[in-house]
Amino acid sequence: STEPKAERDDDTHYFSSYAHEGIHWTMIQDQVRTDSYRHFITSNPDLFHNKRVMDIGCGTGILSFFAAQAGAKKVYAVDASQIAKNAVMNMKANGISDVVKVLNKKVETLDIERDLDGEKVDIIISEWMGYACLYEVFLPSVLIARDRFLRSVDSGGLMAPSQCSILMAGWSDETWLKEKVSWWDENKYGFKMRESMTKRMYEEGLIEDFPSDGILTQSTCLRDVHTATMSSELKDCISFAKPFTLRFRDQLKANQKFNGFLIWFDTFFTTDGRLVEGLALEDDHNWTKSEGEVGFSTSARATSTHWHQTLLLLKQPFDVTADTELEGVTTWSVQPDNGRELEISMMWRV
């Protein structure tokens, strides 16, 4: 008889990938990321002093350290990965085990009486973002925790970050394309490799820091993820369809090709949880911040982060001019074969 096929366990693979110290080195040394969280938390002692805080996906506990430093009464540091053992050691080494309680479990399994001392928390902090913002699909866990364990927003409950905005622009860069794609056109040591070595470039999002000079269009906001109000349902917080229009910049060279869609996200920490205009960090927009508020971008024009940007590369590029207007619809959903991956489709016309 044939044994039934074991059900795929995407969560186990996901959490085990965060058990090794190397990935936490990558995240902590990302100064844009870590300093933004630190600045928001430690610059707002009035928000954090004597408050109960939950740190979801705590990793080494770095955000919990900041919360304790800002005067939090109690911090619940939650992580289902085995890195939580490191967090326990880190709290002991810094003498704050009485303030920070490390919970090595999925946040969805927490019990308010057993794990949270019978009370809801005042603030949730979490670095839940993945590539293109939603990759790894960790956002639903954070929003479920908000619904179950955070004081209502109306009574002062706060989410940090308060918002992420997913942005997109048209892109092309001849030098990059020659180095990374066309390089395979010629035989290597007399052998053909082009078809196999470029196939996945057109099927998967490419993750790296792309040349900012390759941005051809004005940016468009695909989605504002407002963590205080967004539904925790997977179909609402991850899946969406968005019409878009890309308008090209005036200074385009002759015979300009359009080679792909470049995606990144901006992140905002506001003291009152309000929604910020999605393009607030673009060059031609001004964001009026209150004292202690923070915003950072993962754009190609900004300081590099470990998120980089995501490029959807076209197998068949096309010519554009400054008068070209590209209209389309992008659809995002959870990848059917892996609950931690995204599936992004693009349909467009010029």
UniProtKB/TrEMBL annotation:
<dbReference type="Pfam" id="PF22528">
    <property type="entry name" value="PRMT_C"/>
</dbReference>
<keyword id="KW-0949">S-adenosyl-L-methionine</keyword>
<dbReference type="InterPro" id="IPR025799">
    <property type="entry name" value="Arg_MeTrfase"/>
</dbReference>
<dbReference type="Pfam" id="PF06325">
    <property type="entry name" value="PrmA"/>
</dbReference>
<dbReference type="InterPro" id="IPR029063">
    <property type="entry name" value="SAM-dependent_MTases_sf"/>
</dbReference>
<dbReference type="GO" id="GO:0005634">
    <property type="term" value="C:nucleus"/>
</dbReference>
<keyword id="KW-0808">Transferase</keyword>
<feature type="domain" description="Protein arginine N-methyltransferase">
    <location>
        <begin position="165"/>
        <end position="350"/>
    </location>
</feature>
<protein>
    <recommendedName>
        <fullName>type I protein arginine methyltransferase</fullName>
        <ecNumber>2.1.1.319</ecNumber>
    </recommendedName>
</protein>
<dbReference type="GO" id="GO:0035242">
    <property type="term" value="F:protein-arginine omega-N asymmetric methyltransferase activity"/>
</dbReference>
<dbReference type="GO" id="GO:0032259">
    <property type="term" value="P:methylation"/>
</dbReference>
<dbReference type="GO" id="GO:0042054">
    <property type="term" value="F:histone methyltransferase activity"/>
</dbReference>
<keyword id="KW-0489">Methyltransferase</keyword>
<dbReference type="InterPro" id="IPR055135">
    <property type="entry name" value="PRMT_dom"/>
</dbReference>
